[in-house]
What we know:
Elements (H helix, E strand, L loop, with lengths): L11 H34 L29 H34 L4 H15 L3 H5 L1
Amino acid sequence: MDEQKVPLWRDDRFLKIVLQLVVLAIVLGVLSIVTNNIIINFRRLGFNFGFDFLSGPASFGIGDTAIPYTPTDPFRRALLVGLVNTLRVIILGTILATLLGIVAGVARLSDNWLVRQVSTIYVELFRNTPLLLQLF
């Protein structure tokens, strides 16, 4: 028995690949036109692309800072202060979450019924709520 060859234009795999390439070309073409129009409109309005703004004054305050900062400092200083503040929050949050997790885990293994139940309720409460709700 000879297996009949299906013509290329009738092969499902080939048609799916061609359809994906056509859709990709259309999406890239539309994105190219849209971004080109956006760039033209920005230039017509006098906006320049680049990093020149980093040397200009930030003109806003930042609350709790580990590095001295005033609103007259340049944007690059504000970005540095934001980076340092973010790293402080990350490190402190990681340490506190680790300690709280260890305490809750050890409490769930406790022989004391009340400690074990409180820890179980705490764990189940946070396990069953969405992260966004916890953040609020």
